[in-house]
C-alpha cells in the first residue's frame, strides 16, 4: 500500500513537472517570437502555455485538496521540485508577458 501511494505521488509530481516544463518552453518561444516582432505567434504561444500550466496547477491542487481533507501526504524532493517548477513558470510567464508588451511599444 505504501509503495502504491508513493508511486501515485511521484506520478503526480512528474506530471506537474512535465506540464509546467512544456508551459515554460512555450513561454520562452513566445518571448523569442516577440523579440522578432512576431506578436501574433507570441500570443498564440502564450495561450498554449496557459493550457499546460493549468493542467499542472490542477494536479497540484488535487494534492492540496487531499491534504485539506485530512490525508497525510508524504513529501519528497521530487514533489518539492514540482512545486518549485510550478512557481517558477508562473513568475516567468508574468514577466515574459510584460516584456512582450515592452517589445510591442518599441516596434
Automatic annotation (TrEMBL):
Pfam families, per database record: PTS_IIA
Cofactor info, note text: Binds 1 Mg(2+) ion per trimer.
Active site: 81
Binding, Mg(2+): 84
SUPFAM superfamilies: Enzyme IIa from lactose specific PTS, IIa-lac (SSF46973)
GO MF term list: metal ion binding; transferase activity
Entry superkingdom: Bacteria
Name under which the protein is recorded: PTS lactose/cellobiose transporter subunit IIA
Organism: Paenibacillus odorifer
